[in-house]
Amino acid sequence: MDPLEIFFEKLGNFICLLVFFGLIFASALKKISEMKKLLIGLLFTTSFAFAQDPVELDLNEAVAYALEHKAEAEKARLDIRKADAQIAEIRARALPNLSGSANTTYNPLLQENVLPGEIFGLPGQDISVAFGQEWTSSANAQLTQAVFNQQVFTGLKAAKSTREFYQLNAQLTNEEIIERVATAYYQVYQAQEMLENIQSNLELTEQTVNIVKGLFDNGLAKKIDYDRSTVVLNNLRANRQQVVNTVELSENALKFMIGMPIVQEIRLPEQTFAPTILPETNIGSDERTELQLLNKQIELLNWQKKATQAEYYPSLSLFANYGWLGQGDTFPVGNGEDKGVYWSDLAAVGVNINIPIFNGGATQARVQQNQIDIEKAQQDLQETQLALDLAYANAVAQLENNLLTIQAQQENVALAREVLEDTQNNYGLGLASLNDLLDAERDLSAAMNNLTNAQLDYKLAEVQLLRSQGKLETLTNNTL
Fold this sequence. Notes:
alpha+beta, 4-stranded antiparallel sheet, Outer membrane efflux proteins (OEP)
């Protein structure tokens, strides 16, 4: 066969193989693409189903979730751990301190001293003598122990107060989280109640539209009455959508307050959104976390002042040294007397006393600064006491006023419902106008919304009362 034919035959076979493998590769890519799309679809469906799976959340569960997941609560717990580390640092100053050191020095030029010749039996001549060796190595270990240091002792006494301060701060942080979560939780209930109110009003308006339409079809009502009632119905449907958005926004706000993913659907349990009469409304100053925290802060400032005053006291410590020293004309490490290197050990034990005498009045100035900080903290304590007393008095007044408002609005709702029923009957009999019917529906809707707002105001005042009493954690044990 001609070489040229052989070449073209092999080239054709090679091209066929390329086409064959290309088709296989394209088919594999298509399969991978389809599998990728299927996997993405499954993941999206799974995540969407998870996001749509509602979680029932009562107030206790909402607060517990927030205390576990909210960043402020976690940071407060980290502060307590930090306090433990600070206590360990202060305690370490009273424990023995052991350190070691080693060095090697090369002296290319040794210092020479001039000595009188009489020392060497050469009177009248001065002789220069070099001291030391070219190489010197040493290894040393030192142990120190504080025997008396008033600053250390004061710091150890203040360590317990420091941890208690962070514990109170964490408790205050939890109370603030509970307050925000409870407020957001009640606002969700308010939005849901508003939605139920507008849904009820929407159903009543639909009934009115049907009545007007029946009368219009039978020639007993005007077309303008039917059109007006239809306009009112359409407006209510638009308002209902706005309230639906309000419910969603309030739920998102609650999920943010407790640190829950926004995509997670929640459902509040069916409970009565009504005021809870508190068993007692006496003021409890000793239980207020804000005051406890400020008192603990003043205690820490006093310890700080004592620590500054401790600078006037002398300090006493023990020390002990032990080491090895090697000298010679060659590198000492690894060499001995046979190489001209001589090693010797050394040790020392002693007492170190430091007596402050005069530092220009710096310590006295720091003591004065500490005293000013204490006085400022005492002013903050008095101001906080007044603020909490004011919050307590306002909360009690709001509870009493809102309770009266709730009772009045409950009566208004009952009367508005009776008026609406009578107006509907009179309208069917031709004894009332469409304006009277629509006004009656609006009055009932307004009365129901006013009742819902009064209930929310009562619950918020209840939160503030418990906060002013230092009993906010008991809120989660009360029913809505």
